[in-house]
């Protein structure tokens, strides 16, 4: 019987992961502070209620901050692994509060890993980001790139957390620490401020969308079900020590291509209003996924058209 500590387990990706673990019979403790950023607490409360109702007796949800040492010590004891997804996400809002991003994403990660090391936890998995590659990394981005020119405080805190983990694990070299660099994750219950959900909501309501730049920015969109399978594969197959893995589609599309695909999915023509590219947005993300294919035996299964259909279905069901 496996028991996991999932931090951020009522957030977008975290609640899909928690559901997958509970669905296969594992026990889960969620640690989440129901943060009001970068989107309102209400959605997280909803995820907590649904999970608690469906999986009563196998889930415990603790409302606390990941920087709290006593809580971290209590909750890491006796777990099969810490799946650390909690954090402040989002490139653009990180410019408004870089200090809070640093505390949560860096100090929070060090606090949890320190507790996991003291408890003898065999696995510490970290949700990192494609943003660590910035604009300076040749594409497709490979995990061995130095990734030392972040374009936003968010990216810097994710890379800093990776480096803190790499340094701390020298003390416990047998510990398995996969660093999973997620590439723009979408799917049902995606964070409301992210492009696909907000664009499709507008499209379904017949409102124009705001596209940043001339539509040539490229993104490697990855469906949340593929990300969850990647996390599970890493818990099974990641080796001892620190090892970064890209989890992306490996097939980037331009924003113009995305809008065309969203129009197909929503069955509507999408009107576009243009705005300048915000500070911190990178020109392109494009994952080299050969390491995850070989070492984790993982590859994405959901192509963009199919993935967008899952989002449209969810948004339509919310309206009903
Ligand atoms: N969604 C993406 O495209 C994407 C891409 C790359 C990396 N990531 C990373 O994956 C993880 C999950 O992202 P998401 O999109 O599900 O975001 P999310 O905001 O929905 O989930 C993060 C969760 O962490 C919790 N949290 C925030 N601060 C906390 C604190 N101090 N203590 C305890 N909990 C706290 C939030 O309440 C939230 O539930 C994040 O670490 C994010 O940086 C996401």
Description:
It contains ten helices and 13 strands. By secondary structure, it is α/β, with parallel strands linked by helices. It has one domain: Rossmann fold. The strands form four sheets. The protein has a seven-stranded parallel sheet, sandwiched between helices. Helix 4 links the parallel strand 4 and strand 5. The protein is globular, with a radius of gyration of 19 Å. The N and C termini lie far apart (39 Å). The site of nicotinamide-adenine-dinucleotide (NAD) has 26 residues, from helix 1, helix 4 and strand 5.
User: What's the order of the H and E elements?
Assistant: EHEHEHEHEHEEHEEEHEEHEHH
CATH topology: Rossmann fold
- Approximate helicity band: 40-55%
Number of helices: 10
Strand order of the largest sheet: 3-2-1-4-5-6-11
Head-to-tail CA distance between termini: 39 Å
CATH class: Alpha Beta
SS class: alpha/beta
Domain tally:
1
Write the layout of secondary structure elements.
Elements lengths: L2 E5 L4 H12 L3 E6 L9 H13 L4 E5 L5 H8 L4 E4 L13 H22 L4 E6 L23 H16 L7 E7 L2 E2 L8 H10 L4 E4 L5 E2 L2 E2 H14 L3 E7 L5 E2 H12 L5 E4 L14 H6 L8 H16 L1
Parallel strand pairs: 1-2, 1-4, 2-3, 4-5, 5-6, 6-11, 7-10, 8-13
Antiparallel strand pairs: 9-12
Helix pairs in contact: 1-2, 1-7, 3-4, 4-5, 6-8, 6-10, 8-10
The structure holds nicotinamide-adenine-dinucleotide.
């Amino acid at each position: 019987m496996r028991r996991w500590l999932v931090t951020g387990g009522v957030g977008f990706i975290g609640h899909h992961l928690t559901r997958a673990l509970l669905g296969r019979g594992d026990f889960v403790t969620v640690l989440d502070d129901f943060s009001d950023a970068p989107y309102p607490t209400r959605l997280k409360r909803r995820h907590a209620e649904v999970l608690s109702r469906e999986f009563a007796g196998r889930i415990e949800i603790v409302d606390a901050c990941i920087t709290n040492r006593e809580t971290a010590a209590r909750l890491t004891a006796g777990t099969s692994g810490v799946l650390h997804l909690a954090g402040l996400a989002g490139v653009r809002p990180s410019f408004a509060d870089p200090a809070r991003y640093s505390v949560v994403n860096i100090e929070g990660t060090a606090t949890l890993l320190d507790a996991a090391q003291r408890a003898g936890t065999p696995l510490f998995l970290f949700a990192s980001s494609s943003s660590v590659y910035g604009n300076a990394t040749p594409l497709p981005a490979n995990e061995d790139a130095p990734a030392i020119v972040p374009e936003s405080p968010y990216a810097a805190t994710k890379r800093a957390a990776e480096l803190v983990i790499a340094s701390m694990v020298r003390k416990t070299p047998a510990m398995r620490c996969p660093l999973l660099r997620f590439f723009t994750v979408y799917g049902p219950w995606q964070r409301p401020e992210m492009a696909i959900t907000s664009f499709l909501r507008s499209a379904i309501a017949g409102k124009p969308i705001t596209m940043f730049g001339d539509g040539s920015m490229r993104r490697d969109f990855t469906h949340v079900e593929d990300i969850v399978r990647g996390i599970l594969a890493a818990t099974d197959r990641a080796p001892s020590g620190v090892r970064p893995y890209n989890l992306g589609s490996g097939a980037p599309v331009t924003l113009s291509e995305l809008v065309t695909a969203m129009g197909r999915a929503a069955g509507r023509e999408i009107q576009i209003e243009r705005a300048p590219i915000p500070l911190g947005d990178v020109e392109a993300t494009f994952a080299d996924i050969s390491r995850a294919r070989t070492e984790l035996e993982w590859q994405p299964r959901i192509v963009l058209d199919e993935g967008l259909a899952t989002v449209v279905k969810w948004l339509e069901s919310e309206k009903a």
